[in-house]
Amino acid sequence: EVYFKNLSKQKQKEVMEKNGNNHKLRVCVATCNRADYSKLAPIMFGIKAEPQFFELDVVVLGSHLIDDYGNTYRMIEQDDFDIHTRLHTIVRGEDEAAMVESVGLALVKLPDVLNRLKPDIMIVHGDRFDALALATSAALMNIRILHIEGGEVSGTIDDSIRHAITKLAHYHVCCTRSAEQHLIAMCEDHDRILLAGCPSYDKLLSAKNKDYMSIIRMWLGEDVKTRDYIVALQHPVTTDIKHSIKMFELTLDALISFNKRTLVLFPNVDAGSKEMVRVMRKKGIEHHPNFRAVKHVPFDQFIQLVAHAGCMIGNSSCGVREVGAFGTPVINLGTRQTGRETGENVLHVRDADTQDKILHALQLQFGKQYPCSKIYGDGNAVPRILKFLKSIDLKEPLQKKFCFPPVKDNISQDIDHILETQSALAVDLGGTNLRVAIVSMKGEIVKKYTQLNPKTYEDRLELILKMCVEAASEAVNVNCRILGVGISTGGRVNPREGIVLHSTKLIQEWSSVDLRTPISDALHLPVWVDNDGNCAALAERKFGHGKGIENFVTLITGTGIGGGIIHQHELIHGSSFCAAELGHIVVSLDGPECLCGSQGCIEAYASGIALQREAKKLHDEDLLLVEGMSVKKEEVVSAAHLIQAAKLGNTKADGILKTAGTALGLGVVNILHTMNPSLVILSGVLASHYVNAVKDVINRQALASVKTVDVVVSNLADPALLGAASLVLDYTTRRIY
C-alpha cells in the first residue's frame, strides 16, 4: 500500500512538472440544480481541501436561482463555497420551447464567464439541458471537459443529451462497469475513462447512523415513525408530457387512498412541471393532513428521509440509484428510468396507467427492508476522481480522439449486400507458412491459401498484399462480402495502431512494422492486427469452448507456447501489450535456456522446439529409437518422434514428456492463482498429449478453491485464422472488441 501511495505521489509530481512547477489545475464546477449539486458537492469539497493542487471556481445557473424551486443556490453558500458567477438562464414557461430558449440563453451568457475564468478544465454532470449548454460552450472555447455519469442508460430525452455531452467531453467519470463498457462501445478512449462510482455515495454510505428522528419530525410531523412514511418525487417525461401528467395524477390518487404520511417534492424545471404543480394544487396536496409538499430538502437531510422511509415512489434517478444504498423499497413509475441498473429493492411499474396498479405496488413494497446495494459506488469515488484530475497533462493535445478503425470506403446497402455472406479476410503469419483465408460469419473457412513465409520484410509484405488481393477477388465468386482484414502474427503487437512492435525469433525482420496502413490502403478495407495467442483466445470466445464464458484462458502448445486471457468477456492486452505471454512463466530457476534468454520458462520445457531438442539429444546418444521405429538419414528428428517413442515404451522419452507436462501444469496453476478463470483451453498440436498431465498437476498443486476449473482441449481446427477473422467480425457487426 505504501509503495503504491509513493508511486501515486511520484506520478502527480511528474504531471505537475509537465504542467509547470507552480501551475495549479484551475477547475470550474458548474451546477444547474439541486440534483446535480448532490453529486458535485463531494468533488468540490475534495478539490477545496487540496489548494496546493487545485483552484476552484463555482458557477451557478439554471433552477438553482428560481424561487419556485427553492433558491437552492443558498445551500451552496451554506457549504461555504464562494460562488464566482450566478447566471439566470431559465426561461419560464415549463414547456418544450422554454427548454430550448433556456439552452440558447445559457449559450449567450456562458462565453463571457469562461473568458474571464479561463479554467483548465470544466466539470459537467449528467444529462440536463443546462449541462448540454455548458459542455457545448466549453468545447467550442477549447476548454477540457470532465463529464460525470456518462455511459448510463435511461428514458426520455436525457439519454440523447447525456450521450451528446459524452461526445463533447475529453474525460469521463462513470459509476458502473456497464456504463464504462457503453463509453468504450461509443468509441471513447479507454485511457480517459475512470470507473470511480457515484460521488454522492461517498456521503450516503457514511450518513445512515447520524441523528435522523429530528429530521423526520421536522419535515413530516412529530407523530411520524421510521418506516411508516413515503417519499414521493416525480418529474415530467419530456417526450410524453400528457401521459406523465396523467400518471402523476394517478400516483397522487393512489397515495391518498393508501393513507400514509407522505413527503412530496416539487418536480424539476422540465417541460410539463407547471402542469404537474397544477395537479398537486387541484387535489389539495399542499393542505392535505397526510401530505407535506416542499420545493427543496437539503441533500444531507434528504438522505436521512429516504434511508428511513417505508417506501419511495416516483420516477427520479435518485430512487433507482442512491436509495439502493439503504435497501429502502422503491416504486419506479413509467419509462423515465428505463435501462438504469437497479438493485432488488426497485419494483418497476412501467405502464402505470391505473390507480389500482400503483396502489397494488404500494401494498407490495411499503415497509419492506431489502439488502443494501452498492451498484453505483463503494464510497471512495472522490479520492479516485481527484487522483484522475491530478494525472491530466495539459500539454497533451486538446483534440480528442475516437477509438474506431479507419474505413476507406462506405459499403452501400443494396440487394447484393443483403444476399452475400458477411465474411472476413483472415491472415496467419507463422514461423514457416503464411496463410490467408476467407472466413464466414459462422466460422466456416470458405477458401484458404498457403505459401511459405518469406525471410525478408519486403518479400513478406509483398506476398501478404498479393494473397489478400487474390482472396478478395475470389470472395466475389464465392458470394462473400469482405468486411475487413484480421491479421494474426507472432510477437508483441500494438492492436490500437496495427503495428508489430517486436517479433519472435521464428519470424525475421518483423519488428516496428506497420501492417494496418499498407494493407488498408491497398484493399480499401479496415485492418485489425493482434498477437497469435490473443487471436486463439478470440477464436475460442466466438466459435469454441469459450463462447459465453466470462473468464477463461487459452494456452497454445505448438512450436512455441503462447496464449490469451479473456476477463469479463474482454481480451486483456496489458499496459505495454505484453499480457498473456504465458509461455514465459518461469517454473524453475535453473531450468533449460529459453529462446527469450531466460531459464526455466514453460516454453523451454513444453514447446515443440524444446521437445525436438530433447529428441535430438536422445537420438545422438542412440537412446531414441525403439522397436517399431526408424528415422531416415535425411529425416529431421522432431517432437513427433519423441512422442512416438514414448508411446512405444521408451522410458526416457516418456520421462521427458512427463516433465514437459508437469512444467505446463505448474504454469497453469500459476495462472489459476493469478486470474482465477473458470475454464482453461489447451490448443495446438501438443494439447491432447498434455491435458491429463495438466489436470494431475492442478489436483496436486493448486489451491482447493481453483481445483474445480475445467481443462479442455480445443475443438477448433484453425484457431489462428478463426481468431484473426473474429477481430473483424466482432467489431464490424457487434462493436464489442
TrEMBL record:
Coiled coil: none
Catalyzed reactions: an N-acyl-D-mannosamine + ATP = an N-acyl-D-mannosamine 6-phosphate + ADP + H(+); UDP-N-acetyl-alpha-D-glucosamine + H2O = aldehydo-N-acetyl-D-mannosamine + UDP + H(+)
Keyword flag Membrane: no
Matching CDD domains: ASKHA_NBD_ROK_GNE (cd24060), GTB_UDP-GlcNAc_2-Epimerase (cd03786)
An annotated GO cellular component: cytosol
InterPro entries the record matches: ATPase_NBD (IPR043129), ROK (IPR000600), UDP-GlcNAc_Epase (IPR020004), UDP_GlcNAc_Epimerase_2_dom (IPR003331)
Record's subunit section: Homodimer. Homotetramer. Homohexamer. The hexameric form exhibits both enzyme activities, whereas the dimeric form only catalyzes the phosphorylation of N-acyl-D-mannosamine.
Protein name: Bifunctional UDP-N-acetylglucosamine 2-epimerase/N-acetylmannosamine kinase
Organism classification: Eukaryota, Metazoa, Chordata, Craniata, Vertebrata
Gene (UniProt): Gne
